[in-house]
Each structure stands twice: as C-alpha cells, then as structure tokens.
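If your schedule permits, I should be very grateful for your opinion on a structural question. Thank you for your consideration; the sequence and its tokens are set out here:

===
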Amino acid sequence: MLAPATLQASPLAALGPRLAAQPVARSGAVSHRPADTPVLSRVFVTGAAGFIGGHLCQHLKGAGVWRQVPFVRGAQSAELLRTQGLEAVQGDLRNPVDVVAGLKGCDAVVHLAHGEQGPKVTRCLLQLAAKHGVKRFVYVSSMAVHGPAPGPEAAREASARIGRYAHDYSDSKAEQEEAVQAAYARGDVEVVILRPTIVYGPAAHFVMQVVQEARAGAYTVFDEGRGVCNAVYVDDVCRAIEAALQTTRAVGEAMFITDDHPITWGEFISTFAMMVQPLPRRVQLSSAAAVQYWAVHPPAPPPALWLRAWRKVRHLGGWQPPLAPWPPLGRVQRECFPVAFSNEKAKTLLDWSPQVSFQRGAELTRAWLSAKGHLL
C-alpha cells in the first residue's frame, strides 16, 4: 500500500506544453449554503446504463427509500434495466422534451452521463432541473479535472486547481463542473460535485482492459508499476452519491471519492491479470519509450460512428477495442499518475467512508469475472 503522499514528478512531463495546465478556476466551492433542505425522494439518474449508473440504480433500489427514474438512450438498455426490476425512461439528453418527461416529479438529479456534447447537455439539464423544481443536483465528475499529470497540490481539494490540458475528457469534465457551480451561484439549484478516482468492480473498464490483455498471454506495467492507483470500489462510490443526496453540509462543495489506502498500478494490474488462466507473463514497459513512440506516431482519432458504437456496447460484457502496438497514451498517463488523493473532505461533509478494501473488492470482481467466463 502507498502512504497518502505524492511520488516524484511523472515522466509524462516530457510531453511538454500539451499536458501543462492553464489554470482557470479554483476547485473550491461557492461559500453560501442553505441551512436546511427538504427530504428528497424521487431521483432522476442520467447514465443509468453505464458502469457506475447501473450499480447506482441497484444500490438505490436496495436502499428501499428512493423512487428513481433511470434515464437511458437505447431501447436495449431500457429493457435490460426492466429485467432488473427498474422502470427506465428512454430518451435523449440532447432533447429537452425527453428530459422534461423524465424530470417530471423529481426533486433530485444524479448526473452521470458523459458524451460528445457533455458541457452543452449539462448546462441544458441544469436549466431544466431548475425550471421544473429540482432541489438537489449531484454531478459525478472525475479526478480527471486536475489533468493527467498534476502536481502535489492536487492531493487535497483546497489547493487543487482545475485547468485546461488539451485532453478532451479532462477539459469536458472541468467545463461541466464550472457550469454546475455557476448554477449554484445563481441560486438555481443546490449542487454537490463528486470526483471519483479509479472506480473498479464488476464490468469496470479498467478491469476489463487488464483481463483482455492477460488473456492474450501477457500483461504490461509501466516503470515497474510504481504509479499511484487511487482505486475505489464502485459500491463505495454509490454510497457517496446517496450521501450527497441526503446531507446539506456538502451543498456547493466538490470532493474526491477515493479509498483510504491508495495502491500502485503494479498491484492493481497484477491482481486482476493473475486471475486469468493460464497465468500470463508480466512485461515491463518504459513510459518514456511509450511517450516517444506516440510522439512519432500520433494516433488518428477514431471515426465518430465507431466511437459511439464502442461507448454503447463497452458496458455489455466489457468489450474493448483491439490493442495497439504500444498501449495508448491515455493509459501511460493514467498508470504513471503521481498523486495520492485525500478523501478527508468527503468523510467530513458526507459522513461517508469507504467500506470495501481493495482485497475485498478484487474478490467480488473476480466472482463476477468468473461467472461471466472472462478468466479462461
């Protein structure tokens, strides 16, 4: 296990200005917050067909006190949720008519969906939520708002900064956070922003990526696996989201959702790779060599239609695209991450703490992988 501290500067700094932050806002909260909030009960959940969204819907159902409205785009996703005892609303977040139909009677929103028009969709959703009487808006952001290679100041929310990093996902999440905080500053709606870290569990993208590689006979780690992996089990994220719906202390605030004990990427990858039979071999890679390769061979952006199809089916059985000669640059950045995030703010404001250790979370994930036939 890693102590809650930072590693040495990431070798990704060699990428130069492309990864340099251009600070535009502090990640702290607007100062005012309400003294009291009505009890919330009916929750509109976007991204309900995704990894976290699917787990959240089951979590809220199990809690027995929430009436939820899972909002999904595809008929197949809606039918899948129905088979799980959840009545989903089918629609397109880009269509205000669909959104209003789903929001009817809801007093809270959990916004998990992320797509090509994320900032535009989030601004529209905030406006419609305020117009139709939503009291609480929980935006599930990401640690990615601090960029792929932040400095030690990012370990805690008070000193962490949000910037622009020429990185589509990071920049989109940052822009959406700004829209959420702006809505709160206007008094439109109460907001809570959660920044989950590396969320894993059954059907998680991070896990399936490792398993797919291991099933080919070998798995790779960068720089002996020393990078910081801020892993958090999906059920703990769901409990944090539920807490954000219930407490008033977190209104107007943004906070990391992560485990108490960060691990290394070597531990994370090896744990899941070595579940595969026959056992794969471990291959050591250099992040500097990978960065050099991608500098000479920049990846062509995938066609938009292909990318949409990948996003649509990725959560169904954990399918992943074919591997490139070198792991993609995004993976290099992720697995050479230099910062261990603190969860103290979430513990204080949400009255929450992670309950699932990495060892236990890995066991639960292994059971799912085995049941789905992914380990042979």
Residues 336 and 359 are 22 Å apart (CA to CA).
